[in-house]
């Protein structure tokens, strides 16, 4: 095994063993020291909260069922239904139709469902849940979205997700320029031996790339924000949105509360808060409380002023934030005044600016590179400008009309992720309302996401990190489950590659792991970055474009 | 000789005062013919008060109180420069702000104008410095808009202001 690792990393087996055993997962006290050493300049994001290791932070996110095994996902802006779901389950007939035509039908359908839910959500009687798997997941995620939309925490998770994406776009553009590695994750992947050969050829370029301090810093910034986004804020949001959703539309969850609370909240402390909020919500409704009022109370508890979030991070400790949110919820039930964030404070751009001010020198380089790229793509800029204008104006409103809804649906033997975008109504032509038809000259790609400006690899870095992290925790089943849902015909090969990757990162001590080293921000340096890049490249080369199927856009989810 | 010294509002404190005094100096020393103060309403009132107190005669003093940011400064300054037929412009702002302001002014005014920078030393807050660095990194986007073209400038304003970037 060590020989295999040594082969990938071009080191002697002895040095790999020594390295793994001496440098692996660091202990808690060291992480605490780091949190005090690294300047925390950004009001809304930090490095480490005082009594959590990065591993614990990320583990938290798995306790609120926000991981990929859930049927759907939500942010304050997006609802994503994992599927894959037969398109006929949505009442659509797409057989023989193009993707564009099917998306048009889908958009009309989703718009109708959203309007229906908007008007009737409080009248739903769901003693027996809808038979449709799609509708079950949709209603669940819709209520989550309804609670979270327009709150300060919704903006915060959105801004952190954007920042992650900007960092990864920067890294991939630079990686392409440094190494000449293709922008596109094309092909079906190559064999294991061929992959090792390719890695060998890329070795020097990868090493040079990872030596650049800007690259290391940007990647570390990505890790930091990702830990907070997926490991912390998402969990805190969960203690409110899950129980309130159950009480509103999922009586079977309420009836089997102990079981579901255990499934959703494996972390004892979070489960305690979620249980209290569930009981309080149930009491409120049993005593004749209004469902709409309950949603408003839940929203208010999550619309916490961002300077208060900052105070918890800097002075009191973020682990008290769930307690604060629960208190806000209780005060809301009593009808007492609760301070909320202002619209100006929770504008997406305001929050994003604050995040950029942290390590502004390197962040300025990230933004400059992106500006230079966009400056050459006027068509993309026009599209982005119109889209951002709508998003920015909507994000700070508490009740903006509709969510963007992605669903993975299948017809005629193929599965596609279709998108309904309320800002690009289905009645408009593609040119007027959608992004189809906007072309990125430099990558020769149709513009679908910001990542298309540099190819299709940026988000695979986040996916690779998540896979490494889960494998390091011994959660191979979760990694495989993700592939089972999303990989389709390529699932078998995915299983093989994951097995190989697990072997590559295995150590003799189960408590020590390669991902542990990468996650330990106190010692994260060019060597760790190089290590990560090689493992990421291994996945890219072995899986080819199939790896893209695992990459979600929003950082709150794997 | 410079036709117009354009002083950009810098708040109601020391920075705003020092910028105004620099503009006053350019008039008094005969470097420029007229003084234009641009900023928001409060800033323009503050700068006007200082300029008059320092002895600038009202007929040499112009102002526009409609700006919210540097892009507005350039846009409104150009409208007035066109009115008074000023082609040689002295741009007065803080040193840390000059690089971005100059690029924006050059782009908005276009190549038929000459813009000369006159920096004033300033000690901004850390927050202001960080903001400036991030905003400077967006300057390449100016390339998307035709230099000196009025319609293009209106479009920049509309677009970039939405993003709260300039």
Automatic annotation (TrEMBL), chain A:
Domain of life of the source: Archaea
Name of the protein this chain belongs to: Uncharacterized protein
Lineage start: Archaea, Thermoproteota, Thermoprotei, Desulfurococcales, Desulfurococcaceae
Automatic annotation (TrEMBL), chain B:
GO CC annotation: plasma membrane
Highest taxon listed in the record's lineage: Archaea
Domain (DUF218): residue spans on this chain: 3-133
Protein known as: DUF218 domain-containing protein
Organism of origin: Zestosphaera tikiterensis
């Amino acid at each position: 095994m060590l020989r295999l690792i040594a082969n990938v990393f071009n080191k002697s087996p002895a040095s790999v063993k020594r390295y793994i055993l001496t440098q692996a997962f660091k202990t808690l006290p060291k992480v605490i020291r780091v949190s005090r050493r690294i300047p925390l300049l950004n009001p809304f994001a930090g490095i480490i909260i005082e009594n959590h290791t990065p591993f614990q932070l990320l583990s938290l996110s798995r306790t609120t069922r926000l991981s990929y095994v859930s049927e759907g996902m939500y942010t304050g802006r997006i609802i994503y239904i994992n599927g894959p779901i037969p398109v006929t389950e949505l009442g659509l007939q797409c057989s023989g139709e193009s993707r564009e035509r099917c998306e048009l039908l889908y958009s009309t359908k989703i718009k109708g469902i959203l309007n229906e839910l908007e008007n009737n959500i409080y009248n739903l009687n769901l003693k027996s849940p809808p038979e449709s798997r799609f509708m079950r997941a949709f209603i669940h995620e819709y209520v989550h979205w309804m609670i979270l939309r327009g709150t300060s925490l919704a903006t915060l998770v959105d801004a952190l997700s954007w920042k992650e994406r900007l960092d990864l776009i920067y890294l991939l553009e630079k990686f392409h320029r440094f190494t000449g590695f293709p922008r596109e994750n094309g092909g079906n992947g190559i064999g294991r031996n061929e992959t090792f050969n390719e890695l060998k050829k890329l070795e020097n370029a990868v090493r040079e790339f990872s030596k650049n301090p800007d690259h290391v810093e940007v990647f570390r910034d990505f890790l930091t924000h990702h830990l907070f986004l997926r490991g912390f804020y998402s969990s805190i949001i969960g203690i409110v949105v899950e129980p309130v959703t159950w009480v509103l539309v999922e009586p079977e969850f309420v009836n089997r509360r102990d079981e579901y609370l255990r499934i959703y909240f494996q972390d004892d402390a979070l489960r305690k808060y979620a249980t209290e909020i569930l009981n309080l919500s149930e009491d409120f409704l049993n005593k004749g409380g209004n469902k709409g009022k309950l949603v408003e109370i839940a929203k208010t508890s999550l619309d916490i002023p961002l300077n208060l979030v900052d105070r918890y991070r800097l002075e009191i400790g973020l682990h008290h934030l769930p307690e604060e949110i629960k208190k806000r919820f209780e005060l809301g039930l009593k009808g007492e005044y609760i301070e909320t964030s202002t619209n100006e404070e929770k504008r997406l751009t305001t929050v994003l600016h604050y995040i950029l001010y942290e390590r502004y020198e390197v962040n300025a380089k990230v933004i400059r590179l992106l500006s230079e790229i966009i400056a050459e793509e006027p068509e993309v800029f026009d599209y982005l400008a119109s889209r951002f204008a709508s998003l920015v104006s909507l994000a700070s409103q508490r009740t903006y009309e509709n969510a963007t809804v992605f669903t993975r649906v299948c017809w005629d033997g193929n599965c596609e992720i279709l998108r309904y975008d309320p800002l690009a109504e289905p009645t408009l032509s593609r040119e007027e309302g959608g992004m189809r038809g906007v072309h990125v000259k430099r990558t020769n790609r149709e513009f679908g996401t910001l990542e298309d400006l540099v190819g299709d690899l940026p988000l695979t870095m986040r996916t690779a990190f998540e896979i490494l992290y889960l494998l390091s925790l011994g959660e191979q089943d979760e990694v495989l489950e993700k592939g089972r849902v999303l990989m389709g015909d390529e699932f078998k090969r995915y299983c093989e590659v994951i097995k190989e990757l697990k072997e590559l990162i295995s150590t003799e001590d189960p408590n020590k792991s390669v991902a542990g080293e990468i996650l330990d921000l106190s010692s994260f340096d060019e060597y760790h970055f190089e290590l990560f890049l090689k493992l990421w490249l291994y996945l890219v080369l072995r899986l080819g474009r199939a790896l893209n199927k695992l990459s979600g856009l929003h950082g709150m989810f794997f | 000789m410079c036709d117009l010294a354009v002083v950009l509002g810098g708040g109601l404190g020391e920075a705003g005062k020092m910028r105004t005094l620099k503009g006053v100096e350019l008039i008094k020393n005969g470097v420029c013919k007229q003084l234009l103060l641009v900023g928001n309403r409060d800033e323009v009132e503050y700068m006007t008060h200082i300029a008059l107190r320092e002895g600038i005669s009202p007929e040499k003093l112009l102002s526009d109180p409609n700006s919210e940011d540097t892009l507005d400064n350039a846009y409104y300054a150009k409208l007035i420069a066109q009115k008074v037929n000023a082609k040689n412009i002295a741009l007065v702002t803080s040193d840390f702000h000059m690089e971005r302001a100059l690029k924006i002014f050059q782009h908005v005014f276009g190549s038929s104008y000459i813009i000369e920078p006159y920096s004033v030393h300033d000690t901004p807050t850390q927050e202001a410095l960080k903001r400036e660095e991030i905003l400077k990194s967006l300057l390449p986007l100016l390339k998307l808009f035709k230099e000196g073209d009025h319609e293009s400038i209106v479009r920049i304003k509309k677009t970039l202001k939405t993003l709260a970037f300039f």
